[in-house]
Amino acid sequence: MKNLKFLPFYVLSIIPLHLLYVLSDMMFILIYYIIGYRKEVVKKNLTIAFPEKSEKEIRKISRHFYLHFCDMMFESIKTLTMGKRAVKKHIKINNEELIKQLYEKNKSIVMYSAHMGNWEWNAFFPNFFQHKVTAFYQPLSNKYFDELMQLIRSRMGVLCVPSQKGYKTLMQLQQENKLTLNLIIGDQSPSAHPKASKYWTEFMHKKTAFLTGADVISHRSDYAVIYPQCTKIKRGVYETKFVLLDESPKASDKFSLIEKYSKALEENINQQPSLWLWSHNRWKLSA
């Protein structure tokens, strides 16, 4: 059987979530107190983002981030066996009607997402919406884990699309008369190469470079653009409220969506700082 090579993860996945959180607490002790995984990167990022906060407050956010980060890893593994009924208990959609209205208007959607909350659980969206859900991704160098992540993301019906083939795939689906909801994560750091496409704007108190792909695709396709504002209600329960950034971006200024996205993401981070991926070296580029 093809998926037998992922048997250890399936075994983990059938463990009840409340017991997986016990393992998560143990992993937190290991990576936070013993290994110290990327603690300096996290501290540097938090200090840049929150210059007004004391060292004690920074440490508190950092600790809560690592607790959430460990939870998210085990929650993502749980995706392998979680049923549709369980999904409804863990994912709450605040304004599902916005997506339904866009569907009735015959509009495909770019969901301009981020490494916020448990972004891997966006793989559950096919359970909520009529749109065909796609997710852009960068293939991992490790083939085993690349296949595992695609398996996790596609199990509920998400079509995983390599980012390099993203726009071409969307146009093919459009020719097939399929309305799509397309998940594009936009908070990775662009390449440092001088010719790499990037856009600079003020974000979390610092000039920050953003990838331009989602903006370019949205303007070309004229798909409606939304941001999924994520909050964590309690352990293992997330709520998403969709923020409409632009319904017809073709008529908007170039890079206007990046400006709107960065402001929406900043507001989301300020709501619950521990939910963002602070271990990513977000500000490795300087303007």
UniProtKB/TrEMBL annotation:
Alphabetical UniProt keywords: Acyltransferase, Cell inner membrane, Cell membrane, Membrane, Transferase, Transmembrane, Transmembrane helix
Main location: membrane
Annotated InterPro entries: LipA_acyltrans
GO biological process: glycolipid biosynthetic process
Intracellular or extracellular location(s): Cell inner membrane
Residues that span the membrane, as ranges: 6-35
GO cellular component labels: plasma membrane
UniProt GO molecular function: acyltransferase activity
Protein known as: Lipid A biosynthesis acyltransferase
Provenance organism: Flammeovirga pacifica
